[in-house]
Design goal:
Strand content: under 5%
Oligomer: single chain
Radius of gyration: 23 Å
Order of helices and strands: HHHHEEHHEEHH
Distance between the termini: 59 Å
Number of domains: 3
Number of helices: 8
Strand order of the largest sheet: 1-2
CATH class of the largest domain: Mainly Alpha
Shape: globular
């Protein structure tokens, strides 16, 4: 990825977050305030906003679309049973083509399959059939989607902490908690990683299923809210840092 691409993605993340999260009295943030918050000029803010609102898919759209495909594969009874995704044939009813037509209608099917295969989320057979290996789309490299996800995750965590700090009513605060032990070994880290991969994934699948059953109908008139939960592994080196004492050079004998 070039520096120019990275810079453009960063601007989009800043403008999107400033526009949606920092409005006054729940109104969208105006261009002047976005410029103040981001350090960009108002002209640049307007350009980035136009880019985000254009018909060209933004960087976040790819991640959202691919995640929607995998979620539909697991949740939609047309493509699985009781949350277990079927191996889908290439074409016909209940096929990979039907799945992509339903959950990614505006994206070329070959592009979706190629990216999901690249990150190890699916396995495509020689006959064109496909099997889901992951429930969620996780970009591998430092590409546009991974940078966008990085900003989104940080924003979710920061907005929750910020909300809880400013909210005076305890019952309106959002759940936020941690479980940490500072005395584990590297072997303990490996074991905990495996345990959390299994248990954490299972928990997130339960969350995803609950959210799916409670989402608004397409013709609902009330405003929709983005609601969810995040889970992440914490690992820090707590061993004491002993500074190295520089050696005093020997003075040569005269």
């Amino acid at each position: 990825m070039s520096v120019k691409d990275f810079n453009e993605i960063t601007k989009q993340v800043y403008v999107r977050v400033a526009s949606s999260e920092y409005g006054i009295r729940n109104r969208p943030t105006n261009a002047t305030r976005v410029a103040i918050l981001t350090g960009l000029s108002r002209r640049e803010v307007a350009r980035v906003r136009d880019s985000l609102e254009s018909d060209t898919p933004g960087f976040s759209d790819e991640s959202t679309i691919l995640g929607r495909v995998l979620s539909g594969w697991h949740q939609d009874d047309a493509f699985g049973t009781n949350g277990v995704p079927d191996r889908l044939p290439a074409d016909g009813s209940g096929s990979i083509s039907a799945l992509l037509e339903r959950y990614a209608p505006d994206v070329p099917p070959t592009a979706v399959l190629k990216e999901l295969s690249r990150v190890g989320a699916i396995e495509v057979g020689k006959d064109g059939s496909a099997r889901a290996l992951m429930r969620y789309y996780m970009p591998l490299e430092l590409d546009a989607a991974s940078i966008e996800r990085y900003g989104s995750v940080l924003n979710d965590l920061a907005s929750t902490i910020n909300h809880n700090v400013l909210e005076t009513e305890v019952r309106k605060r959002r759940f936020e908690g941690r479980a940490v032990n500072p005395r584990l070994s590297n072997a303990g880290l490996d074991a905990f990683r495996d345990w959390l991969e299994e248990r954490g994934q299972s928990f997130l699948e339960e969350v995803d299923a609950w959210l799916t059953t409670h989402e608004l109908e397409h013709d609902a008139t009330e405003p929709a809210l983005r609601i969810g939960a995040g889970l992440y592994l914490i690992a820090n080196d707590t061993s004491p840092r002993i500074p190295k004492v520089p050696k005093v050079p020997k003075v040569p004998k005269v």
